[in-house]
Specification:
This protein has a single domain, classed as NAD(P)-binding Rossmann-like Domain (Rossmann fold, 3-Layer(aba) Sandwich), CATH 3.40.50. The chain has three helices and four strands. The chain is an alpha+beta fold. Strands 1-4 form a two-stranded parallel sheet. A two-stranded antiparallel ribbon has the order 2-3. The two termini are about 20 Å apart. Residues about 100-103 have low confidence and may be disordered.
């Protein structure tokens, strides 16, 4: 998951809670460290949950063995994140972007 704000954080947390391997990309090394040590806290109608997961502070630091990548970033950051992701995804991964245009 690229982006672990309100939307990305909730999605990453519930996916991790379901038993899948999740790594989030956040803006700063401090935020990445906090997620790994303290977790992402989710509160809502399904209960309260704190989930620790792997985190990095740069898209380039994601390993290339991801089967799927979800973008939870602001629209203004979407193209930059997509271009960086394309370079590191394994063939056949879901989440690659074939075009530099956003329609």
């Amino acid at each position: 998951m690229v982006g672990a704000g309100a939307i990305g954080g909730i999605c990453a947390g519930w996916i991790k809670n379901a038993g899948y391997d999740v790594r989030v990309v956040v803006r700063t090394p401090d935020h990445a460290r906090q997620i790994m040590e303290e977790g992402i806290r989710i509160t809502g109608i399904k209960g309260d949950l704190t989930i620790k997961m792997d985190a990095v502070s740069r898209v380039e630091d994601m390993d290339g063995d991801r089967d799927m990548v979800l973008l939870g970033v602001k629209a203004t950051e979407m193209m930059e994140a997509a271009e960086k992701l394309n370079a590191g995804l394994k063939p056949g991964a879901i989440g690659g972007f074939p075009s530099k245009r956003v329609l």
